[in-house]
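Task card 7
Instruction: Convert sequence to structure tokens.
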Amino acid sequence: MKQKIPKPKLFACSQSVELATEIAAAYGCKLGKSKKSIFSDGEFQVSFEESIRGRRIFIIGSTFPNSDNLMEMLLMIDAAKRASARHITAVIPYFGWARQDRKDKPRVPIAAKLVAKLLESAGATRIITMDLHADQIQGFFEKPVDHLFASTIFLPAIKDLNLDNITVASPDMGGSKRAYAYSKFLKSEVVICYKERKKANVISHMELIGNVEGKNVILVDDMIDTAGTLTKAADLMMEKGAKSVRAICTHPVLSGQAYERIENSKLEELIITNTIPLKKQIDKIKVVSCAPLFADIMHKVQNNNSISGQFLM
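Output:
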């Protein structure tokens, strides 16, 4: 007789309650009860307010700075392990600290590797995330990693725009692989921006490799932080004769002067997901929810079904 799989429980870290609520609704259940208590000095404690013994649990939370968001995920995982959860899946839509995935100069940490080890040491038995800054971060884990691609939800959104003469663009050399993957599905040409930096978040020079004249350009990237690269690329493409420039970015970090740069740029539209909550809403930003994708993958993980059909890239 086939043993019945116990129903999973879904819980949210405080920074991702809105997204977790959407994921739970798409999954077909309610979020489990948990609590975060804060001491007067800023230290905090998390607790599960219902039994999780013998269950698979999904803990949903993006780990964008500040470090309290990562710490809360670690404490939730540790609490679940000590409460005898059967499987602990960390659902991290935005995997923070991923830009530090290698030693690019002497005497610096590999933060992405450190975070991976922290999650495993806390007790995570599986990781579900989306659009890692570098694919090789999956290799930093000894546990299974389901690395989802936002192209699953972005490609239908691009097709709904009903644009002709589309050209896919990467705002830097590092994103060329992603741009070529999108172009394969859209059957379009690709252009690449080559940039030089004086220091982090400061571009000294940018050149365009390819022709955009008369084209509707779609810039693709995994994240948008200060929006300096993306807006500079959009302005450059319009100067080179592009008909329009839009951008799709999975993770809306949007720090510093990002909102002002987007408002004042030649970008017609910025399409993002809700892996990170927006600080404010502006007319040029359109949000496409990633909740149905995560809910579908979580269903498949729970029922031991293949998820390979979800990978468009």
